[in-house]
Design goal:
Elements lengths: L2 E3 L5 H12 L3 E3 L6 H6 E2 L1 E3 L4 H15 L2 H7 L1 E4 L3 E6 L3 E5 L4 E3 L6 E3 L2 E6 L7 E2 L2 E5 L2 E5 L6 E5 L4 E3 L2 E3 L1 E11 L4 H20 L4 H17 L3
Antiparallel strand pairs: 1-14, 2-4, 3-7, 4-6, 5-17, 6-17, 7-15, 8-9, 10-14, 10-17, 11-16, 12-13, 12-15
Helix pairs in contact: 1-3, 5-6
């Protein structure tokens, strides 16, 4: 499932974050890349323990916890602290796949990366290039969203960031472990949840609302890993 989630952050939150990010201490993105990723990665990042990353990351996680579209689509169990990167001057990140297991910084806890998230902080017209190209079942999808919007996609996907030839691409990226491991099952639950909400809004007293809600929760009970 590839899903754009609009307005995760307000314009004021984006502006505040950008002000902090402009003053942050950026490092070579290769510092956090694995062996394969380091060969094709050319960008800058904030260190995982950078105070700015932690401050803005907390705002992002709080916003997502109150976002019904994200919660319904992701069914998150564990979310890694958001990280931040920027691309300019031709920088790029070639085709790669995200690592399957990541350690939560500062702990020994490991999580499985089921879903990848990219939240945009620069408007599309501020930079040329910088498209996130995601390979899925139906071919390559090009993603370049407005500031404050986020793309959610399976971490199993091959993906890349095309060279930024003008301006600066500024994003947050992070991963999560879902309660539902299989993308197909997670997609079915999301589709059912959307349909139930639509039916409930149009015909709140229809007996199928309760019946379908029961089916949804029974499937969630059957498939969820806690």
């Amino acid at each position: 499932m590839l899903l754009a989630i609009p307005n995760v952050l307000t314009s004021a939150q984006v502006a505040d974050a950008r002000r902090l990010l402009e003053q942050a201490a950026w490092i070579d993105g290769k510092a956090t890349a694995g062996h394969q990723g380091a060969r094709v990665k050319d960008n800058q990042q904030l260190a995982v323990d950078d105070p700015t990353a932690r401050q803005i990351g907390s705002v992002i996680l709080q916003a997502l916890s109150a976002n019904p579209l994200f919660m319904s689509a992701a069914l998150p169990l564990h979310i890694l602290p958001p990280m931040f990167n920027r691309y300019s001057g031709g920088q790029t990140f070639g085709t790669h796949v995200d690592g399957s297991i990541r350690i939560v910084p500062g702990t020994g806890h490991r999580i499985r990366t089921d879903l990848s998230c990219t939240l945009f902080f620069a408007e599309p017209e501020e930079y040329d290039g910088g498209e996130l190209i995601i390979e899925d079942t139906y071919g390559a999808k090009s993603v370049k969203l407005p500031a404050g919007h986020m793309i959610l996609y399976p971490s199993t996907s091959l993906h890349q960031v095309t060279p930024v030839t003008r301006g600066t691409r500024l994003c947050s990226f992070f991963w999560l472990q879902s309660m539902i491991r299989a993308d197909t099952q997670r997609s079915m639950l999301f589709d059912m949840d959307v349909a139930i909400q639509r039916l409930g809004a149009e015909k709140p007293d229809h007996p199928s609302v309760v019946q379908l809600t029961g089916v949804y929760h029974n499937l969630l009970r059957l498939w969820a890993e806690m």
